[in-house]
Amino acid sequence: MHHPVEQLSGLEGEEALTALQDLLEQVLPVDEERRRESIVVIELIHASRTQPVFAASASQMASDLYDIIAAALASLKIPNPSAAARQVSVLIGGLTLDAVTPHGALTVYQLRSTLRDALRNFLNAER
């Protein structure tokens, strides 16, 4: 079985954009199941600040997400995938928070279109 980021290798343009968005949406609240999962993750992250028992799990989740994003961007031949992965991680965090809290209350359509626009701008700027 292949790692999902291997499917991005050699892709360009809209095809690369769609594949990257599809990969990232696996961790975004784009349906009810992932919305519930996102809320649990946010609560775990919040709890890790004051409950040391959760700190290692929260840190590992962040590290795993970063590693997958960096690998995906490297597969797309993005220069400096490590720095780019930090930027995309922040984007995902902000979109998630805005989608599941009254802070922003993004709709799924708004989340997806915002993600796509940001990734398009990012991919075009990095090439």
Description of the molecule:
The structure is a single chain. The chain is mostly helical and 127 residues long. It has five helices and no strands. The chain has helices spanning 13-24, 32-48, 55-75, 81-100, 108-126. It starts with 12 loop residues before the first helix and ends with a helix. The mean pLDDT is 91.
What's this, in brief?
With 127 residues, the protein is mostly helical. 70% of the residues lie in helices and 0% in strands.
Radius of gyration: 15 Å
**Sheet/helix structural class:** mainly alpha
**What percent of the residues sit in helical stretches (DSSP H or I)?**
over 70%
**How many E-type strands?**
0
Q: Please give the count of helices.
A: 5
Q: How big a fraction of the residues is strand?
A: under 5%
Low-confidence stretches: none
Beginning-to-end CA distance, first to last residue: 30 Å
Rounded average pLDDT: 91
User: Topology as H/E string?
Assistant: HHHHH
The shape is globular
What are the salient characteristics of this protein?
single chain; 127 residues
Blueprint (SSEs and pairs):
Layout: H1 13-24, H2 32-48, H3 55-75, H4 81-100, H5 108-126
Helix pairs in contact: 1-5, 2-3, 2-4, 3-4, 4-5
